Amino acid sequence: MQDIIKKMQSLGFNQYEAKAYLALVRIGSASAYQVSKDSGIPRARIYEILNGLEQQGIVLKEEINDAAQYSPLPVDVFLESMQVNWRTNFESISESLKDLEKTELTPDNRVATLKGAEHILSYCRTLLKKAEKKIVISIWGDMYEELLSDLQKATKLCALKGIVFEVEQPLAGLDYHRTTSYTKNIGHQKWFILSIDGKEMIYGPSITERETAFYTDDPVHIYLLENYIWHDILVNRLVKNQDAIVEKWIATEREQFFSL
Asked: Which residues fall within 8 angstroms of residue 247, CB to CB, at 6 or more apart?
């Protein structure tokens, strides 16, 4: 029950309004006293709450033998009404926000922090929809799976380039990074990079490890990280068909470079 109340609150109802409507759904037509008793809403507040819901059209009121009886808007009608209201509000706020965005001055190139797995994924999907010419990525299996359907749609309109880790049969245009001692022991450092048209980029650790990423439209950041991806691809291609001696040499050189 608490879960339903919280979800109704996310639709704009307060806790008492949600409890009153749910009580009426459960018991049908009832007096204010019965609603108060069933829902736990204080009697001093129940008439205020029910009258407010009546004003919204969520509760129906009728006088029977000089006593007020309340009944809920049928659930199917309630849900349809909520859906229509949500769609109307969404379309209205979308237009208003887009108009506002057009009138605002374009900010200087920046690096912004993104928080929350869903926000990060939504931002990535938004960038993929905006891509017009080229998408460049470096990505591990978990993030790749999250964005696969969006990548597939985007590649119908523009080129896809980059490198993937722990992904079998990646999309055309993507190199598969060979398995090495470094990739096997990388632990929590499975970063991703997503760049579109050389103009905007999101990068950060896997969202399963840390729900933080970074957005930038700074050309220097984008240039450096796209070149990082190309360097990774180039080394991977050069080494892929070489023997274990070369792989061991690279591992040794890397360890020496990053040692204290």
From this structure: 180, 239
Q: How far is CA 145 from the centre of its chain?
A: 14
pLDDT in tens, 131-182: 999 999 999 998 999 999 999 999 999 999 999 998 989 999 999 988 777 7
8 A C-beta contact, residue 143 and residue 207: yes
> Does the fold of domain 111-258 match that of domain 2-73?
no
Chain centroid to Cα 237, Å, comes to 34
CATH (residue range 2-73):
1.10.10.10
Question: 123: which 2 tokens?
Answer: 């931002």
Kindly report the CATH class assigned to 111-258: alpha beta
pTM for the structure as a whole: 0.61
The domains of the chain are located at 2-73, 111-258
Can you tell me the distance from the alpha carbon of 213 to that of 196, in angstroms, rounded to the nearest whole number? 16
Q: How far apart are CA 29 and CA 91, in angstroms?
A: 35
Please tell me the distance from the alpha carbon of residue 193 to that of residue 203, in angstroms, as a whole number: 4
Q: Helix 32-39 crosses helix 43-56 at what angle (to 10 degrees)?
A: 110
